[in-house]
Each structure stands twice: as structure tokens, then as C-alpha cells.
TrEMBL record, chain A:
Pfam families: BPD_transp_1. One of its GO terms (biological process) is amino acid transport. GO terms for cellular component: ATP-binding cassette (ABC) transporter complex. It comes from Glycomyces lechevalierae. The keyword Transmembrane helix applies. This is Amino acid ABC transporter permease. The chain crosses the membrane at residues 20-46, 58-79, 85-104, 141-165, 185-207.
From TrEMBL, chain B:
The keyword Membrane applies. It comes from Glycomyces lechevalierae. Belongs to the ABC transporter superfamily. It holds the Pfam family ABC_tran. This is ABC-type polar-amino-acid transporter. SUPFAM superfamilies: P-loop containing nucleoside triphosphate hydrolases. GO terms for molecular function: ATP binding; ATP hydrolysis activity; ATPase-coupled polar amino acid-transporter activity. GO terms for cellular component: plasma membrane. Residues 11-245 form the ABC transporter domain. Its EC number is 7.4.2.1. The keyword ATP-binding applies. It catalyses: a polar amino acid(out) + ATP + H2O = a polar amino acid(in) + ADP + phosphate + H(+).
Length: 218, 251
């Protein structure tokens, strides 16, 4: 088969593992940011709504690569230092968080107004009605689009190679550019493609399970 | 107007105005609802009766005027407003049961979250209320599995579970199939007889006649006529009310 197959699999496997954990951790960050954003979006206080909108516009309209460069090159200039994988996680998380916030917002908007009115009418506070009534019903609606964001994040995570994090695509490049040309080009291309597909399939499957778990009779 | 005038009003509305854009939806409304009194608001569509009802627990804000419930002015926002709403039961035209919760959870949510009632006690009370509205077998089903009339009776039980000082009904039978209207009206009629203070917006003239202490007739954002049911239906004083009654009572 391909030249140095075992070595290639080991290298791509290590890269794939980095891609997986970078994706999952930055998605967790994005979920937290998205939840904070959506609470601010629906808040009765206008400064909160304004700030959430400003954040969303900023991160939706700046390329992810630019966000990563700003963090990685810009922040150390002003004395904020961290390892490159920290900037990778933060950059991916903050960028995706803006999209998660919009997705959650559309989920909340899909819940009929009467649900919130009934919640208020029995004396729930704003945050109680969000927690007990609105968010639980929104979750089911937003799981499929959140799944799409997760898959997009798997692919976006390749950009962190630009700030020196050796994830799957970076490993592939290293194999292709190997000094001793030990690896077959098409072997690497097929290997990296199959790895991304496998990661996406597994994550899609988990999303489907989450979708089923949150279903309720309507 | 005779003896029904209350000593301590449960609801007092004075000089209330409300606009929706250019529409003057409520015009200088004055109304008091006495403790234990059943006030039925009737009038043509767009007359402001639902809006008026919704101002009482501040689901609608007002532009000017004062509203007090049990002697206390309506708080503007926050926990104080939530506490007031907890004391005012509300039944909506479209039921608005929480779609992701079972019937029992719908009823116990308020007592558990707002009143801090222990879960077991809240559930016991919820089952009593379900029996009272004739739905003892339905505790564990979801709202979508019930008919409209059944959903509305659950909504009434949900309101009652908070031990409200006042129950408000905003066109509770308008979204129901005709054969389900009476099962809801019967529950409401029983409540009225037991002395619950009620504000009811409805097109059910039969209910108004049998259950109301007072009928308030509204048109174009104004209270046009206030009278006992017998006075109002047998001898309406204003042309507007006579016209309305002639249209709704012909069949």
C-alpha cells in the first residue's frame, strides 16, 4: 500500500486527536458565550441587548483567521501572554459563540409568546421563565442547527495551524512536506479526508442522539 | 347601582389610558372590582376589554393612570411584580399550557418555583385541583394529548394552584369547539359561586347573565355602560349597548 503507512496513521491520528479536543473544548466555550449572549439579547435592559449585538456583529463579520491573528499576535504586544493552543481555543470559541448566540435566539423566538406570558402570569421572574419554560423548549429546536455549527467548527479548527497548533491538517502538511519524502501524497490526502469524515460522522451521530433525547410529545 | 359596591376593592383602576401606536386602546378607564365580585367585560372585538384585563397583572403596561391590586399599586418590574402576578390567576384564550411539561408539572411549577411549596404537597394539591376540574386521570399526559376544553380546564387548575386572590379569564372559550365550551363555563360558574373574585372577558352572554355580579360593556376603548346582568340585558341604557345586544342575541 502507501509508503510508511504505520507512521502516517500515527501522525494523522495524533493530529485528529488534537482536532477533536480543540473542537470540543472550543465548542463548549462557544456554548457558554452563546448562552450569555442570548440572555443578554432577550434581556429587558437595553445596554445588555446593545452589548450582545455589538459582540455578534464583530465576530460574525471578521474572518476567523483575523480573529486568531489578533489574539495570537496582538494580545502579546499589549502584555497578555499565553500558549498558542489557548489562543486557538479562545479564538474558535469566541467566533463560534456569536453564531451559537444567534442560533439560540432563533430557537427562543420560535417559542410562542403565550408560553412566556403564561410563565410570567404565574409569577415566575424573567430568569425563572427562561430557565424553566423557554430554554427547555428551545433546546430541541436548536439542536440540529447547533449540530451544523459543531461540524463547521471541526473544519474551521484547521485554521489554528496558522498560529502553530498541530491539528489534523497541519499534520497532513508536515507529512506532505517531509524532508525525506517518505509519504505518498495521495495516501496523505485520503488519510486526512477519511479522518475528517469519521470525526464528522461520529459527532453527527451524537447530535442525533441528543435530538432524540430532548424530544417531547407535541 | 346598588349594594354590590365593594368596601375594599380587590382591583382598582383609575384614569387609565393606553395607546398602541395611533390607536387609543383604553380611554380614561375607571373600574373597581370588589372582593368576591364577578365582573364580566363584554363588547365588540377591538373594544379594549382584553387589553384592560391584561393591564391588571401588567402583561400590558399603561401610559397613564393608576392600578392597584388588593390595595397595592402595581410594581413596575422585577420580583415585586412577579409576586403580584403570583396572586392573580390568569386563563388565556389559547390556554398557553407549558408544552414540554405534563399536566401535573404544569400545575405544580408555580407552587414549587414561586411559593416554595414542597413537591409532594404541591402534587397532592394539583391532583385535588385536577379532580375538581374533572380531569383526575390526566395528570401524566402532555398538553398536546388533550382536547381544547381539557387544556383550558388544566389552565384553570394551574391558576388556582397559586391560591390567587383574583382570577382573570381572557376569552377563555373563544378558541374552543362549541361542544367543549360548557365544560369550561361550568368550572368557572362553580368558582364564581364559591366566592372567587373574577374578571372575565367573554362573548358568552349566557355565562355573563348567570354568573356575573356586574357587567361592564366596552366599546372603542371606553367603558360605555356598567350594570347588573339583568339591567344590562333587559334594559340597556346606551344606544351602543342596545346595538351590540341586538346583534349578538338574535340567534
Amino acid at each position: 500500500m502507501f509508503d510508511n503507512f504505520d507512521l502516517m496513521v500515527a501522525a494523522l491520528g495524533a493530529g485528529a486527536w488534537t482536532t477533536v479536543w480543540v473542537t470540543l473544548v472550543s465548542f463548549a466555550i462557544a456554548l457558554v458565550i452563546g448562552m450569555v449572549l442570548v440572555v443578554m439579547h432577550v434581556s429587558p435592559a437595553w445596554p445588555a441587548r446593545w452589548a450582545a449585538n455589538a459582540y455578534t456583529q464583530l465576530f460574525r463579520n471578521v474572518p476567523l483567521l483575523a480573529v486568531l491573528f489578533i489574539l495570537f499576535f496582538g494580545l502579546p504586544q499589549v502584555g497578555i501572554k499565553a500558549d498558542n493552543w489557548v489562543w486557538a481555543l479562545l479564538g474558535l470559541g469566541m467566533y463560534t459563540g456569536a453564531f451559537v448566540g444567534e442560533t439560540l435566539r432563533s430557537g427562543i423566538n420560535s417559542i410562542p409568546l403565550g408560553q412566556a406570558e403564561a410563565a410570567r402570569a404565574i409569577g415566575l421572574t424573567f430568569s425563572q421563565s427562561l430557565r424553566s419554560i423557554i430554554l427547555p423548549q428551545s433546546i430541541r429546536v436548536v439542536i440540529p442547527p447547533l449540530g451544523s455549527l459543531l461540524i463547521a467548527l471541526v473544519k474551521n479548527s484547521a485554521l489554528v495551524l496558522a498560529i502553530g497548533v498541530t491539528e489534523l491538517t497541519a499534520q497532513a502538511r508536515r507529512l506532505i512536506e517531509d524532508n525525506e519524502s517518505r509519504f505518498d501524497l495521495w495516501g496523505v490526502i485520503i488519510g486526512v479526508t477519511v479522518s475528517y469524515l469519521l470525526i464528522a460522522f461520529v459527532l453527527s451521530y451524537l447530535v442525533r442522539i441528543a435530538e432524540k433525547r430532548t424530544a417531547f410529545v407535541r | 347601582m346598588e349594594a354590590t359596591q365593594p368596601k375594599t376593592p380587590m382591583v382598582s383602576i383609575s384614569g387609565v389610558n393606553k395607546h398602541f401606536g395611533d390607536l387609543h386602546a383604553l380611554k380614561d378607564i375607571d373600574l373597581t372590582v370588589g372582593d368576591g365580585e364577578v365582573v364580566v367585560l363584554i363588547g365588540p372585538s377591538g373594544s379594549g376589554k382584553s387589553t384592560l384585563c391584561r393591564t391588571i397583572n401588567r402583561l400590558e403596561t399603561v401610559d397613564s393612570g393608576d392600578i392597584t391590586v388588593a390595595g397595592k399599586p402595581l410594581p413596575a418590574e422585577g420580583r415585586a411584580l412577579a409576586n403580584l402576578r403570583a396572586d392573580v390567576g390568569m386563563v388565556f384564550q389559547h390556554f398557553n399550557l407549558f408544552a414540554h411539561l405534563t399536566v401535573l408539572q404544569n400545575i405544580t411549577l408555580g407552587p414549587i418555583k414561586v411559593r416554595r411549596t414542597p413537591k409532594a404537597k404541591a402534587e397532592e394539591r394539583a391532583r385535588q385541583l385536577l379532580e375538581r376540574v374533572g380531569l383526575s386521570g390526566k395528570a401524566d399526559v402532555y398538553p398536546s394529548q388533550l382536547s381544547g376544553g381539557q387544556q383550558q380546564r388544566v389552565a384553570i387548575a394551574r391558576g388556582l394552584a397559586m391560591d390567587p386572590k383574583l382570577m382573570m379569564f381572557d376569552e377563555p372559550t373563544s378558541a374552543l369547539d362549541p361542544e367543549m365550551i360548557n365544560e369550561v363555563l361550568d368550572v368557572m360558574h362553580d368558582l364564581a359561586r364559591e366566592g372567587m373574585t373574577m374578571v372575565v372577558v367573554t362573548h358568552e352572554m349566557g355565562f355573563a347573565r348567570r354568573a356575573a355580579n356586574r357587567v361592564v360593556f366596552m366599546a372603542e376603548g371606553q367603558i360605555v355602560e356598567t350594570a347588573t346582568p339583568d339591567e344590562f340585558f333587559d334594559n340597556p341604557q346606551t344606544e351602543r349597548a342596545q346595538d351590540f345586544l341586538s346583534k349578538v342575541m338574535t340567534h
